[in-house]
Amino acid sequence: MKSWSKPRDANLVPEIGGLRLFDTRSQTFLNPISDNSMNLYVCGVTPYDSAHLGHAFTYLTFDTLIRVARDTGAKTTYVQNVTDIDEPLFERAISTGQKWQELSRSQTDIYCRSMQRINLLPPDHFLPVTENIEYIIQAAESIADQSYKLDSTTYFKSSEIDSASFTQLSIQELIKISRDRGGDPETPGKQNALDPKLWVPSINDEPRWDSKFGVGRPGWHIECIALSDKVFGGTFDVQGGGEDLIYPHHALCDQMSIALHEKTLARIFAHVGLVSYEDEKMSKSKGNLVFVDDLIKDETDSQAVRVLLLNQPWQTAWEYHEPLFLEARSRFMGWVQSYENAGFGNPIQLIHELRLVLRNNLNSQAALSLLDKYSSVQSSFEERKVSADAVWALLGLDLEGNRI
Prior knowledge:
Largest sheet: 5 strands, parallel
Strand content: 5-15%
Radius of gyration: 22 Å
CATH class of the largest domain: Alpha Beta
Number of domains: 2
Number of helices: 14
Distance between the termini: 23 Å
Order of helices and strands: EEEHEHHEHEEHHEEHEHEEEHHEHHHH
Strand order of the largest sheet: 5-4-3-10-11
């Protein structure tokens, strides 16, 4: 599946250097680049009520990571899936009287359009589950010896100890999270309350395929294992997603990867803070969503969304209020005015300082403060052009107004 068109190329010569990114599992900073390349997999949307600010915050974080990695001279490969087989999608389709296929297609289109409007780099591989089912069935069947069947559902034999180690949470905390995030820890007869579904029977008009487990469809976690394997063939550099994917999704994906390859899924697990609105986490189930498209009326708004999100520390949860967007819009317009008035001088020092803060765990908040600082420094036309190229390359912000 095609995602969206890539932005115009940036004119900034890379500078070799280190990059630090916080790893959830080890609770340390690690370099996501190995052998001058970075392979990144970010869990994509389940396409219903797509493209709210929570989505945008997650995907802009990894957009920034790719920009910064490329600026070190690294080659990047970016994979993003579309979870177009999942219970919430089917439930929404039934409640709205739509076919799940139509709902999935329309919401994926909205998501792609919204991500393009805020100038995100598109994934190199955009992989819907439904278009890659043969890889997923093969992966599930390859770990059949570490599964068991209960009634008509097949479960993967997970490890409570490994899950607790990955998350640094107690078993009771994990059971509660599992219950809240689509697991079924109370199902009688399970060998382990935290065991996830590997293969499930299809009901109503849900899609169905033949496998050694019977006719049905795959569970959630094995989908991402198979899709990352399709491109990377084993352990890759960075597994990304929202903080709510730490458990169960990423912890159990890692266990399935070890079952499949005897190797961890990724070297680094990077998790983005959740966005709340009206005092609660922004979520489809609560209906308190702020959609990207609703904020954008013109190109300045699209840049304001980027400024809004870049101004939040990426690992930290935060709450959206409309004044934050208005402030971001005003701030961006101020930079544009300064650029038109021959600001953004001393580009060599600006670029040096931008690299320092962005390569230190993607400190985009500090990067925006540097734009405030240098916007008042007078420059020649050639100097401010260099500054604008760097800001476009590293932050995806268009000071010139002619790149989007």
